[in-house]
């Protein structure tokens, strides 16, 4: 019996996946937003997960892409050939997980259970249907770097402390989706770029080095880093000082606002969020 759609959906998916051989190739179709996030989190918990073909409505995957926290996990799974994402504009009537020898309806809703279908003729028919649907669509572009690559390159190209701060903030905040750190003008200061800038300010990094790193790994363009740095300055969360160089314009060193020095990395995003919320009252 499989319980899905509850507040512990990721744990439920993990239990479901743990019963599937890691050498299997499975098909998952039709999950909506929260269920997709829970499934990605569950799949990431395994050292040796099964290979997954994942098909759902394009709006769901675009929703996921707006949250770096879950999109970067999905990108890790894609890079390791564990997960392939394809999108469709069609509504998928039946939400299913199909293995080599079973078809499992996935029903959202607290306390609802389903039993896997194992009749061989039925399963073969479902497998063929899913394969036909899969072949009609192309791979979805996450446009998000794998999280492991983000952490690795950040430590290599800036510093271990910078990487540690960024990882701590990202994991603490949980989601970088809009609405959790927005200004009155709608700028999200606690997205993946804003957190990188705050981490950089804690470690007094150069904006030039940080933005070049972000641009190289396709986290965001240098222009995006510069624009969000200005927004953080406008709200007095950070400031910059000029650092002369031998040739060309001075670089800008990122500095955290003095009142924020007392906060550890795991506390800083909440301090910023609280100030933003208070300023909007």
Automatic annotation (TrEMBL):
All copies of domain Transcriptional regulator TbsP N-terminal, residue ranges: 21-145
Name this polypeptide is given: Transcriptional regulator
Lineage per the UniProt record: Archaea, Methanobacteriati, Methanobacteriota, Stenosarchaea group, Halobacteria
Cross-referenced Pfam families: HTH_TbsP_C (PF23336), TbsP_N (PF19138)
Domain of life of the native organism: Archaea
InterPro entries: TbsP-like_N, TbsP_C
Domain spans labelled Transcriptional regulator TbsP-like C-terminal: 146-270
């Amino acid at each position: 019996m499989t319980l899905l759609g509850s507040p512990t959906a990721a744990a439920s998916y993990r239990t479901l996946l743990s019963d599937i051989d890691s050498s299997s190739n499975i098909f998952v179709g039709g999950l909506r937003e929260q269920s997709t996030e829970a499934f990605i989190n569950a799949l990431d918990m395994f050292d040796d997960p099964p290979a997954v073909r994942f098909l759902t409505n394009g709006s769901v995957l675009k929703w996921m892409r707006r949250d770096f926290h879950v999109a970067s996990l999905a990108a890790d799974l894609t890079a390791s050939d564990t997960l392939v994402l394809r999108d469709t504009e069609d509504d998928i009537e039946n939400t299913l997980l199909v293995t080599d020898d079973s078809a499992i309806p996935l029903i959202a809703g607290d306390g609802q259970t389903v039993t896997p279908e194992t009749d061989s003729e039925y399963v073969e028919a479902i497998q063929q249907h899913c394969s036909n649907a899969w072949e009609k669509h192309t791979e979805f572009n996450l446009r998000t770097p794998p999280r492991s690559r983000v952490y690795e390159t950040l430590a290599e190209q800036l510093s271990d402390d910078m990487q540690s701060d960024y990882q701590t903030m990202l994991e603490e905040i949980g989601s970088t989706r809009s609405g959790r750190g927005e200004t009155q003008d709608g700028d999200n200061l606690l997205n993946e770029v804003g957190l990188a800038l705050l981490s950089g300010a804690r470690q007094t990094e150069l904006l030039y080095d940080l933005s070049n790193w972000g641009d190289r790994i396709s986290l965001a363009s240098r222009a995006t880093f510069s624009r969000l740095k200005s927004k953080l300055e406008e709200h007095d969360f950070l400031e910059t000082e000029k650092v002369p160089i031998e040739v060309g314009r001075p670089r800008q060193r990122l500095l955290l606002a003095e009142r924020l020095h007392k906060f550890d990395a795991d506390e800083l995003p909440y301090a910023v969020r609280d100030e933003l919320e208070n300023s909007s009252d």
